[in-house]
Design goal:
The structure is a single chain. With about 300 residues, this protein is α+β, with helices and mostly antiparallel strands. It has helices spanning about 1-25, 270-295, and strands at about 30-35, 50-55, 60-70, 75, 80-85, 90-95, 100-105, 115-120, 125-130, 145-150, 155-160, 165-175, 180-185, 190-195, 200-205, 215-220, 220-225, 230-235, 240-245, 255-260. It has a 4-stranded antiparallel sheet, with no helix packed on it. A 4-stranded antiparallel sheet has the order 4-5-6-7, with no helix packed on it. A 4-stranded antiparallel sheet has the order 8-9-10-11, with no helix packed on it. Helix 1 packs antiparallel against helix 2. Residues about 1-30, about 130-140 and about 270-280 have low confidence and may be disordered.
Amino acid sequence: MKLYKSLTVATIGAIVAGYEILGSALPGQAVIISTGVVPSPLVITPGLGQVGNVDVSTGVFTPFITNGENFSELAFNDFGKLFGITTSGELYSISQSQGSYTLIGKGEYNDVTLGLGFDKNNRLYATGLGLSSIPPITATPDGNFYSVNQSTGSASLIAKVPNLPSISDIIFNPKNNQFLAISSIVGGGDSTLFSLDLNGAATEIGKIGFSDVYGMAFENGTLYAYTNDGRQLIINQTTGAGVFDKKVTGLTGEIFAAASSISETKSVPEPTSLVGTIVAIFIGWLMKHKQKDSQSA
């Protein structure tokens, strides 16, 4: 009877653990995007921004902020806190549970800020368009790479990034201690995927094959990207090539940004292997107890 009870407890424990692991492995809503309304080129309507979850398995967008700030980029820190930045360099903290956002501060960029991301050491970085935000507005063939104080919003230029203008998004990959960066020229040709070192050195990976790609996010190790007109792409991190996955539904504007936690860069085991692990643990436990019983007999 004692063995039966122990067996029952162990079985239930294994099943519960298995469901918890499987639950974390199933497609969810770890991807966050922001949208805005752009009635004419380069003009963003204030107060019509949205931030919400995208279920990558269905493409359904569910906002938790509506009629809000227009965030040009989003980023998660290691503690699951969400941040957003505007094109003028205003840094905000965003509450998903309350559907609200709070201004932290404004950095002195003298630039149009488009990218935002944390590295594995929880340091915050931003990228600039390479386009002066102070008249006279002049374009350069280079982008800018900044470090950002997440407590005050102040920014410091790390380096100019030669031949990488309009860095529309960055996302950190802890596997190689680099950012992935997308260069997208408004109304231009194919967007391009780059690797971006923490010192600002960039290396071209390849053309994505789609224009106006403004957001990237990981989900269980898969790199997704989003075009401003609402297409969800899957990106090959080795070649940069993108393939159309599905259309995002539920949008009321254009996609400006995407974000995901650093943990999402890691792929999860297949459910079958998880079940196999649970069974192996259980069999090992059972054999151990059988040995104890035979020794005591």
